[in-house]
TrEMBL record:
PROSITE patterns per the UniProt record, alphabetical: NLPC_P60 (PS51935), SH3B (PS51781)
PANTHER family: MUREIN DD-ENDOPEPTIDASE MEPH-RELATED (PTHR47053)
InterPro entries xref list: NLP_P60_dom, Papain-like_cys_pep_sf, Peptidase_C40, SH3-like_bac-type
Protein name according to UniProt: C40 family peptidase
Organism: Caldicellulosiruptor morganii
Residue span(s) of domain SH3b: 24-85, 104-167
SMART domains registered for this protein in UniProt: SH3b
UniProt keywords, alphabetically: Hydrolase, Protease, Signal, Thiol protease
Signal sequence interval, chain numbering: 1-24
Span of domain NlpC/P60: 190-315
Family: Belongs to the peptidase C40 family.
Domain of life: Bacteria
């Protein structure tokens, strides 16, 4: 072993013996923003980093930060993210022992027997059940519709968005030309349908991609609808035709209410369902449009309206 290698080994051993911890950095988007291939607003958009979601920080230089999010590596504007260190367990426990009301938002549980889980999955261990009206502290918003919370008696775990009413959880957005660089008006405090629609509007402007099912790479129509509802614990089939055949209860057009699914045959033959969107009220629906090449809001009386086939209700 040469001198440099020996020195590096000794230095590493000394470092480990001191118990010093190197903290990885995490970025949380404060707005839905573009991920670019290089640190320039003229660089290619390789994905989208949605508001409230988290990513690993690779490096930061001035007004740009390099991140890894949902399998996409690229650059985002530093102004639109919040960077934090992933603290050690000891530091986390110390922070949680201080006044929660000072550091965290509060939320109210909306249903009896609401499940607090050990991880961000409906198959993970249930660590506690909470009654309707219970107060919890919001520690962070995670990917795929989960919220990390702490109960009043100190139990930490994950809950789905639709189980909680988050106090003061609204913000505003202006969509800039060419992509997302600002926030959207979102309110998670209403009914389940309101929260689903608010979550769906996070992705307005995200590009259309055939077969796409992720905000970082793009959506097709059914991928978008499936992704949105999955964030609220509702499983839907992958294609528009399968959703129409298997999910929910069929309703008449005059029974439509926000959160219902609307189905179309865009080929004009009115004999096969190949498109789906989410009804948002007032004759409008949100969908991933191949014609407009992005997630957008359309009128049922528009071109798609002439190919309307049926509606189904999946929110009970």
């Amino acid at each position: 072993m040469n001198f440099k290698a020996l020195f590096a080994t000794l230095l590493l051993a000394l470092f480990l013996s001191t118990g010093t911890t190197v903290f990885a950095k995490t970025a949380q988007a404060t707005a839905t923003i573009n991920i670019r291939s290089s640190p320039s607003t003229s660089a290619k958009i390789v994905g989208v980093f949605p508001k409230g979601f988290k990513a690993q920080v690779i490096s930061t230089s001035g007004e740009w930060t390099k991140i890894s999010y949902d399998g996409v590596v690229g650059y985002v504007k530093t102004d639109y993210i919040m960077i934090t260190n992933d603290n050690s367990k000891a530091n986390s426990k110390k922070a949680l022992s201080t006044s929660d009301q000072v550091f965290y938002q509060t939320a109210v549980v909306l249903k009896d027997n609401a499940r607090l889980r050990s991880d961000k999955s409906t198959s993970s261990k249930i660590v506690k059940t909470l009654s309707k009206g219970s107060k919890v502290y919001v520690l962070s918003r995670e990917q795929n519709g989960w919220i990390k919370v702490k109960t009043s008696d100190g139990v930490i775990g994950y809950m789905a968005y639709y189980l909680l009413k988050i106090n003061g959880a609204s913000s505003s957005k202006t969509v800039s030309r060419g992509g997302y660089d600002r926030e959207d008006k979102i309110n998670y405090n209403g009914s389940l349908a309101d929260r689903i629609i608010g979550f769906a509007k996070n992705f307005l402007g995200i590009r259309y991609r055939y077969g796409g099912s992720s905000p970082s790479t793009g959506f097709d129509c059914s991928g978008f609808v499936q992704y949105v509802f999955r964030n609220f614990g509702i499983h839907l089939e992958r294609t528009a035709a399968d959703m129409a055949a298997s999910n929910g209860v069929r309703i008449s057009p005059d029974e439509l209410r926000p959160g219902d699914l609307v189905f179309f045959d865009t080929d004009g033959g009115r004999n096969y369902i190949n498109h789906v969107g989410i009804y948002i009220g007032n004759g409008m629906y949100i969908h991933a449009s191949s014609a407009r090449r992005c997630v957008t809001i359309s009128d049922l009386t528009s071109k798609y309206g002439t190919s309307f086939m049926m509606a189904k209700r999946v929110i009970r």
